[in-house]
Amino acid sequence: MITMLTLYSYWRSSTSYRVRVALNLKGLSYRTVPVDLVAGAQRAPDYVTKNPSKAVPTLVLEDGTVLTQSLAILDYLEHTAPDPALLPSDPLQRAKVLAAAQIIASDIHPVNNFKVLSRLKSHHGFTGDTAAAWMRHWISEGLEAYQALLPDAPTYSFANTPQLCDLCLVAQLYNAHRWGVDLTPFARLLDIEKQALKLPAFDAARPENQQDAA
């Protein structure tokens, strides 16, 4: 049984946001240790021993076991704290939820994360404006694909309760708002976001509600 957990997190990290929501939904006790990505805290030797990818989130279990990568952490939480379920038991529906989640986790996030943007600026001449345009392009393309997968009826993406893909979506929409993405074509996704943020588990996980929020 899971007891107290330690989450290494950065307030604006969408991957950390996903995990915070899951921990909150499942009613799990955890403490947060901020990792300032802008200041380079993720490259500190003691942190790299926990997370060799120099990224967040990192979840440390009470016995000291370290888990990295947000989807792997979410999978662990789903198996060890299955209520409420974030994945359907039906294999076909489960595949649909995972496909939507992976559009965000595998298509959008890898080309838009902090280390990629830093490299584009430091080695490829990107300015703040060109970096923002890069972000908007990939976020828009990914959200278009995500929305195309969804049925019309449910409150959330595939059900009337939040599932794993909704955690990924709401976290990514935070980035979309931040970078000025034109969200006019994504009314269905904005409706999901609006409903999700009414829930205490999502609201408490918002970046602006974190202890390290700037």
TrEMBL record:
Lineage top rank: taxon: Bacteria
One Pfam match: GST_N
UniProt keyword Isomerase present: yes
Keyword Isomerase attributed: yes
GO cellular component: cytoplasm
Assigned keywords, A-Z: Isomerase
GO biological process: glutathione metabolic process; L-phenylalanine catabolic process
InterPro entries: Glutathione-S-Trfase_C-like (IPR010987), Glutathione-S-Trfase_C_sf (IPR036282), Glutathione_S-Trfase (IPR040079), Glutathione_S-Trfase_N (IPR004045), GST_Zeta (IPR005955), GST_Zeta_C (IPR034330), GST_Zeta_N (IPR034333), Thioredoxin-like_sf (IPR036249)
Ranges where the GST N-terminal domain occurs: 3-85
The EC number(s) this enzyme carries: 5.2.1.2
EC category: isomerase
Gene Ontology MF term list: glutathione transferase activity; maleylacetoacetate isomerase activity
GST C-terminal domain mapped to chain residues: 90-214
CDD domains linked: GST_C_Zeta, GST_N_Zeta
Gene3D superfamilies linked to this entry: 1.20.1050.10, Glutaredoxin
PROSITE patterns: GST_CTER, GST_NTER
Similarity-based family: Belongs to the GST superfamily. Zeta family.
NCBIfam families the record matches: maiA
Name of this protein: Maleylacetoacetate isomerase MaiA
Organism: Roseobacter litoralis (strain ATCC 49566 / DSM 6996 / JCM 21268 / NBRC 15278 / OCh 149)
Upper lineage: Bacteria, Pseudomonadati, Pseudomonadota, Alphaproteobacteria, Rhodobacterales
